[in-house]
Automatic annotation (TrEMBL):
GO biological process, one term: transmembrane transport
Coiled coil spans: none
Protein species of origin: Acutalibacter muris
ABC transmembrane type-1 domain residues: 66-275
InterPro entries the UniProt entry points to: ABC_transporter_permease, MetI-like, MetI-like_sf
Record's GO cellular component terms: plasma membrane
Membrane protein topology class: Multi-pass membrane protein
Location in the cell: Cell membrane
Bilayer-crossing regions: 12-37, 72-91, 103-125, 137-160, 204-220, 257-279
Domain of life: Bacteria
Keyword Membrane carried by entry: yes
Official protein name in the record: Sugar ABC transporter permease
Length: 287
């Protein structure tokens, strides 16, 4: 009887959360899948199978947006992980001595979106600091925000804004590695590379996993800055999948919106699952 009462109390405590997940996540997801496989709206909704998927994947704007998004992720994720890991390793031995420095790393991350956009405008607009310096030293003029260089600017903005957050995540994993292991390796004459490969790397897989997941999430959040910089129809080099989703929503094209959302979810889940399986195998091998 006591166990049943305790179980009932547990169910009551999680009920608000479960109801919220059902109303705001599960049901909308089912509706998105339904719209992606149907045409029409309301009572006049007819099942048409994968026709919408064929139509969207043949759409030039979708392929452009999807390609740019994958290109951005392929460039941003390795760069931010290498940069963040290098900084975290440099700070490893002094992590507890410079706690204020760790707070400084988070300043770009917590900066309001508008503030980040204003900074980009001050640096890379036609009358900005970078074009001014380039013009002063005789370099050719570059359209930093309206041409192919805009992709590099967006990538740089992402790295500046989110690297600090990844450093904190990786540093949290590094400080849990016992110092005695490095001391023992020093006595055995191990080099810095050997200590990194045989001591640090095997114990950092879960930290790296979470850092990559949050970096992936933050990469999609970067659309806010891109949208404010380039608008609904920016230069084709920074026309991302979120632009396609936003424009489909504004045009009330729920079929395209739903298909693009489902395809994006599938790609994210594949990346997540692949890396999670890889990390689990590494951890199982270490155990």
């Amino acid at each position: 009887m006591k166990r049943s009462k305790t179980a009932l109390q547990g169910y009551l405590l999680i009920a608000p959360l479960m109801i919220g997940c059902l109303l705001f996540y599960a049901i909308p997801f089912v509706l998105v899948v339904q719209y992606s496989l149907s045409t029409g709206s309301g009572d006049a909704l007819y099942f048409i199978g994968t026709y919408n998927y064929q139509d969207v994947t043949a759409n030039h704007m979708f392929t452009l947006a999807f390609g740019n998004t994958m290109r951005f992720l392929a460039a941003a994720l390795p760069l931010i992980m290498v940069l963040a890991y290098a900084i975290a390793l440099l700070m490893q031995k002094h992590a507890n001595k410079h706690k204020l420095l760790k707070s400084v790393f988070l300043f770009p991350y917590i900066m309001p979106v508008v503030g980040a956009v204003i900074l980009v405008e001050l640096l890379f607009a036609e009358t900005g600091l970078v074009p001014g310096i380039a013009n002063a030293i005789g370099l050719p003029m570059v359209d930093w925000l309206g041409g192919p260089a805009a992709f590099g600017v967006v990538l740089l903005l992402y790295l500046w804004k989110n690297t600090g957050y990844s450093v904190i995540l990786l540093l949290a994993g590094l400080v849990t590695i016992p110092e005695e292991q490095y001391s023992a390796a020093d006595l055995d004459g191990a080099s810095g590379w050997q200590k990194f490969y045989y001591i640090t790397t095997p114990q950092m897989w879960y930290s790296v996993f979470f850092a990559i997941i949050f970096s992936l999430i933050n990469a999609f959040k970067c659309f806010r800055e891109i949208f404010l910089i380039g608008g609904t129809h920016p230069n084709e080099n920074i026309y991302m999948l979120q632009h396609f989703l936003n424009n489909s929503f504004e045009n009330l094209n729920y079929a395209k919106l739903s298909v693009a959302s489902v395809l994006l979810l599938i790609v994210v889940l594949i990346v997540f699952a692949a890396f999670y399986i890889f990390v689990r195998k590494k951890e199982a091998f270490r155990a």
